[in-house]
Amino acid sequence: MSDKYVIKRAGPDAASDIRALTRRAYAPWVEVVGREPLPMTADYETAVRDHLIDLAYCDGELCGLVEMVSQPESLLIQNLAVSPDHQGQGLGTLLLHHAEKQAAQLGQSILRLYTNRDFGSNVSFYERSGFKVERTELFMGGWTVYMCKSVGE
Fold this sequence. Notes:
Layout: E1 6-9, H1 15-33, H2 38-41, H3 44-50, E2 52-58, E3 61-70, E4 75-82, H4 91-105, E5 110-116, H5 120-128, E6 132-139, E7 142-150
Helix pairs in contact: 1-3
């Protein structure tokens, strides 16, 4: 499965492709939460400069990405997005493993992420991938679930 995808670091010229993929990936959640999820409105021109964004390609087509932010004690997964055409094929898992390797290379022992509690399938996916809920907080009329995983688990 991993031979199917090529992962490359995003450059400044990738911002519009990142935005387009993220908007497609998160579109189903708009109706669930009654607004565009934050990754749909992010400033990707700034993100490609300030964050680590790795892009997954299949046959030359951008089909997934993981956006990571190095923090003092952890690596934060800011955004994990998979094209609707590639969901359910293991790409999300591959990108999580990739983020774990990036954390290890940066000397980080913890991966963190957050998601909307109403994104139930995402919360379940992260739990199946070894993430534990740290806390849940009220945010913009909904609930944000903060999760973490020790690198190497």
